[in-house]
Design goal:
Largest sheet: 6 strands, mixed
Order of helices and strands: EEEHEHEE
Shape: globular
Distance between the termini: 29 Å
Structural class: alpha+beta
Strand content: 35-45%
Helix content: 10-25%
């Protein structure tokens, strides 16, 4: 995603999750918006497959449950759909383009 669209007016209102390595380097991030959307999930390429994304997603889902959300939604890049399906997310609607990348809406009801 282009850096200029990453920060927005919702950032101060979100729950943010960060994953660090032993040296304090950020490996991944994600955020939970007040309306239950999970977004800005990103993991450094070299950290993928090591459980970083799973830990971030679990932390955001736990935060949503803890504040009483009944469900969470996200906009998944189509190549990442199997990752989110492992957590119980279900694809909804048609594929759409976001910043030149194909996406699908996914929902998980707690």
């Amino acid at each position: 995603m282009p850096a200029e669209i990453e920060l927005d007016e919702f950032d101060p209102l979100c729950v943010h999750a960060l994953a660090f390595d032993a040296q304090g380097r950020v490996l991944g991030t994600g955020r939970l918006l007040p309306d239950g959307h999970i977004g800005r999930m990103a993991v450094l390429r070299e950290a993928r497959g090591a459980g970083v994304g799973s830990a971030l997603l679990q932390a955001l889902m736990d935060a949503a449950r803890a504040r009483g959300d009944r469900e969470v939604l996200l906009s998944a890049q189509t190549h990442a759909i199997p990752f989110y399906e492992r957590f119980g997310f279900v694809v909804e609607g048609e594929e759409y383009d976001d910043a030149g990348i194909p996406h699908r809406v996914m929902r998980l009801v707690f």
